Amino acid sequence: MMNQCFIQQPMTVKIMQFVTDVCSECYKNFEEGEESFYDTQSCRYLCKECADKICQEIIEQERERYLNENDEIEYSQPTLF
Ligand SMILES: [Zn+2]
Hints:
By secondary structure, the chain is of the alpha+beta class. It has one domain. Helices cover 36% and strands 16% of the residues. The protein has a three-stranded antiparallel sheet. A hairpin with a 4-residue loop joins β2 and β3. The structure holds zinc ion (ZN). Zinc ion is lined by residues 23, 25-26, 28, 46-47, 49-50.
């Protein structure tokens, strides 16, 4: 279930040189061409594993908030803005 939380893009040499070459969460080194996930809320790059994990947490939070507001079981649609 990817992915409403992050912008998925392959890691490029440019990003690695000018932005970052490690995941902001687990500090794993990116390799060129590897899928990376840009977190638009925290402005950081994440590897797939961390993006999956954090996305799941965001969705859970959104759903809880939604349930609190609406008191019925439905999935919310998290938006970037
Ligand atoms: Zn990571």
